[in-house]
Amino acid sequence: MIIADRWFASSKICSVCAMKNKELTLSVREWECQHCGTKHHRDINAAKNLEKLAVSFTASACGASADGVIVSAMASHGAVKQESNTKVIY
To answer: Number of helices (H) and strands (E), helices first, in the chain?
Structure first.
């Protein structure tokens, strides 16, 4: 589980180009990004940004995070292939 900071501006950040709409107030439910022109519903945009935040902290089975950075637990070993090359015959 990833907990976003209380002040993370999930609804104010464009989920397409990452520009922050500093003037956005709580009463505005839909807005258009002045940088890329994408139209957003406040809650859906926030959900997309929170999903991106969570994915950026996840790690794959080999120790590399979703954005390609090695997580600290694997930093000294690097990403390692987990599969075995051994054939099993039943």
So the answer is: 1, 2
| Residue pair 44/4 in contact by the 8 Å Cβ criterion | no
How confident is the model over 37-72, as pLDDT tens digits?
Answer: 999 999 999 999 999 999 888 765 555 555 444 444
- Would you state the structure tokens that stand for residue 35, as one six-digit string? 């940088």
SS3 category, 20: strand
One-character DSSP codes across 28-61 = --EEE-TTT--EEEHHHHHHHHHHHHHHHT-B-T
Structure tokens at 6: 């209380």
User: Which sequence spans correspond to the domains of the chain?
Assistant: 1-58
The encoded tokens of residue 83 equal 């599969």
Tens digits of residue pLDDT in 74-86: 334 444 455 544 4
pTM higher than 0.85: no
Structure tokens at 7: 């002040």
Name the 3-class secondary structure at 13.
Answer: strand
